[in-house]
Design goal:
Elements: E1 3-7, H1 19-27, E2 30-33, H2 36-45, E3 52-54, H3 60-72, E4 76-80, H4 93-102, E5 107-111, H5 116-123, E6 132-135, H6 143-152, E7 157-161, H7 166-175, E8 181-185, E9 193-197, H8 199-208, E10 217-221
Parallel strand pairs: 1-4, 1-5, 2-3, 2-4, 6-7
Antiparallel strand pairs: 7-10, 8-9, 8-10
Bound molecules: S-adenosylmethionine.
GO molecular function: rRNA (cytosine-2'-O-)-methyltransferase activity
Keywords: Cytoplasm, Methyltransferase, rRNA processing, S-adenosyl-L-methionine, Transferase
InterPro entries: 4pyrrol_Mease, 4pyrrol_Methylase_sf, 4pyrrole_Mease_sub1, 4pyrrole_Mease_sub2, rRNA_ssu_MeTfrase_I, SAM_MeTrfase_RsmI_CS
Amino acid sequence: MGKLSIVATPIGNLEDITLRALRTLKECDGIYAEDTRVISKLLAWYEIKKPLQRLDSATEIKKADEIITRLEAGEYVVLVSDAGTPCISDPGARLVAQVREKLPDVEIEAVPGPSALTATLSIAGLNVTEFTFLGFLPHKKGRQTALKKIAVSEIPIVLYESPHRILKLLKELEDLHISRIIIARELTKIHEETVSGTPTEVLTHFAMHTESIRGEFVVIVKP
Ligand code: SAM
């Protein structure tokens, strides 16, 4: 029986990768990546050459069958996403579930490392004994329900958001009369920035610094 490794990769800064992740990428038989072009840059940086295949949310189920066959044949297969930890708002969970179900004896190992979730929590200055991670809010159906959940939460809520929707989200949080939020943008990258305040204050910041409405965002809503 082979082995499936779920390997965390950097969320920006290419130096944020563990020695074990590098060894795993070097030793495996093949890598499945959300976007092979993205992971190729990381592999080229570390001079790792491996057969690469795409596994994104559209191809995950189909590729799971192929990976199961490879694991049965004794291969060592790695899954990575574009950034951070696979399966955290990224493809991979359905693959892992399939492998668990169909090959219960196969080892599935985590090679932990960066995640925008834990990176943001680590600099938020909150006593994070408990929190709710909602990831990306649904765009339409279920969004209002999620927002209502946020409004009454007694513990911090962590959200992922894209630059296209960050202003919409901030306005919604303003309407909910949320008292304080923390936003981490472009963590580990050149334009890394953390902004905190009321949603209105953060909206004012973005109105004054429109160049800041770019990149990737994590939003923490304080209870
Ligand atoms: N699996 C990833 C992880 O472990 O963090 C998350 C993947 S999810 C598709 C991408 C979202 O993660 C972005 O829209 C943003 O909300 C967040 N994110 C990823 N990299 C980030 C960074 N460098 N700074 C801030 N947020 C980031």
